[in-house]
Amino acid sequence: PAPPETSPKTPPPAEEPARPAPKPESERPAKAETARPKPPPVEEEEDPYADVSLPPKPAKEPAKEPAPKPAKEPAPKTAKEPAKEPANEPAKPAESSVAAQPNSGLGGTGTSGGSFGAVGKAGVRDLGAAFTQAIPAACGADMTWSEIGLGDGGTVQIAIDIDENGRPKSFTVLDKNPPKQLQNVAKRTFGLLQSGTFALRSGSVTAGRQTVEVSATVGMTDKPVTSGGLIELSHAFENGVGRAHFVQSTGREVRFRVRVIRVEVTAAPAGD
Description:
Elements: E1 99-100, E2 106-108, E3 125-126, H1 127-139, E4 151-162, E5 168-173, H2 180-193, E6 198-199, E7 208-220, E8 230-238, E9 241-248, E10 252-265
Parallel strand pairs: 3-6
Antiparallel strand pairs: 1-2, 2-5, 4-5, 4-7, 7-10, 8-9, 9-10
Helix pairs in contact: 1-2
């Protein structure tokens, strides 16, 4: 038999020389850092559209407070207009008390009066004319006239006493049983005369008595009725005879005739 093949012997590898051990990091020389050049500064490009000619906007000023308004000068005072004269139609007077007197009918004395005697021109007034004028204003609101029938309203005689100063001091209804509406005429009209000064005759102020006769007629008017008050009134006096009338809101119309029948002077006029 053939001898077994033998592989040629490979020589052992040569031993590599031992590598020196690496030095610790601390012993390694530090690498020199090279300074990097800084990039050049970037120059800002100018805006070709920028308006360099405009100045900066000024700061806003604070709002100014409004100046105070000047005080108004007072209007010049003007002279006051003269007071208007009171209307001829006075206020309703207070009724005077009436007491029975033996053998002389009804009478009374005034304790308070209206301003009727002072209406018109200042001074002494004729008593008969003033009495006639006062009837519509004094009696127009008396609704007794609306309660009686149409036609004759009665007749009555009234005596008015005047003191030495020309002031009315009392009245007397001479009829024994006068109608109620005519009693009211005496009371209301006398009350309206009390603040005046009157003469019995010729403008002379004396004490005395004047007696008048008053008659009335009641009717109806076709004038429209109002809500209240008088529709109209009127008066006139001449030569010792006077006429007066009024129309109430009910349409009742009353007409009066006044006649001076007697004048008695009890003292001489002042200054004689």
